[in-house]
């Protein structure tokens, strides 16, 4: 005969509920002073009092019994006798472990970095704030939106959004465990430039209200991702490769962050005492070098044109004359699909030394002049006008040399771990 022994623990939580009518709804900008607390203090007070604390015992953590255990009826009868007032025997070890759990040393949890974006839900409102340091622009609030809603308030190093749960396009979604309200926090600066150098982003921010308190967890089953294939380039041909800051090939799935530098390395199998040069380089969003749009970064027989616009764009000295290294400030084309990759296409030549028709010149913003990579700056004078081709310059390939594609990350690292608020009554 088998019986089931059930155990349960009950916890009473009391919350002071405020009617939504006690806080009048306003159209447009919400007034934070209605809460008698500045936004920072309100977030701090809510984060420190969201959940009740559970007192701990000096004997260790409290016992966490399973929902039920199947045991033999004879064993139950034996243990039942222990609780008889007339019982004078010893207490079985199984019962001793229940009443006197072993002391467990508490685990010290190291707090991670403070999130740049925080959210909090009440019964009828959602609060979101983002640090101003995420977007280094004094007018960033004009381009920040939570769904369809603009910034409410800007103070104390934060931008704030305070709206009711039926505003901003918020819609409740029911999951197995919670009711979730999710909306995108977007920064979409307006620009009419050829390329974009500020950082647009869109990150989901959510608040959830837990539907159940579970006493167990379901096992995690990993999901195998997609399989990627990469063609191997021949070592006997010229190549333009996207690399990382250590000049190593960009790893599979690697990408560059907007507002950072993109690194490139040109390698060619040339004869001794020859130096590699780039006549012209441009970037496209398609593998076809003739596709539109395109952005010219190097032209005029080696003049780094983009170095006049971005201090990140410049040539770098390499350990081998047959290797040319340079960086370009990361950018996106307007209306570009974020899943698209970028390509760079270069026209390569080689010479024994730098000449006006074969050079590596970068614009110096301090001296307001052009400088050659290895010091012969006079060959860069024509970068201010038009450099003429001379006899003797040898082309490495009959057509442009193109790179493999890479992508630009649009989510700042500071926002890659966004704190999701817990929806609680207030």
Automatic annotation (TrEMBL):
<feature type="signal peptide">
    <location>
        <begin position="1"/>
        <end position="20"/>
    </location>
</feature>
<keyword id="KW-1015">Disulfide bond</keyword>
<dbReference type="InterPro" id="IPR001507">
    <property type="entry name" value="ZP_dom"/>
</dbReference>
<dbReference type="Pfam" id="PF00100">
    <property type="entry name" value="Zona_pellucida"/>
</dbReference>
<dbReference type="GO" id="GO:0007339">
    <property type="term" value="P:binding of sperm to zona pellucida"/>
</dbReference>
<dbReference type="GO" id="GO:2000344">
    <property type="term" value="P:positive regulation of acrosome reaction"/>
</dbReference>
<dbReference type="GO" id="GO:0035803">
    <property type="term" value="P:egg coat formation"/>
</dbReference>
<dbReference type="GO" id="GO:0031012">
    <property type="term" value="C:extracellular matrix"/>
</dbReference>
<feature type="domain" description="ZP">
    <location>
        <begin position="120"/>
        <end position="368"/>
    </location>
</feature>
<dbReference type="InterPro" id="IPR055355">
    <property type="entry name" value="ZP-C"/>
</dbReference>
<dbReference type="GO" id="GO:0032190">
    <property type="term" value="F:acrosin binding"/>
</dbReference>
<keyword id="KW-0732">Signal</keyword>
<dbReference type="InterPro" id="IPR042235">
    <property type="entry name" value="ZP-C_dom"/>
</dbReference>
<protein>
    <recommendedName>
        <fullName>ZP domain-containing protein</fullName>
    </recommendedName>
</protein>
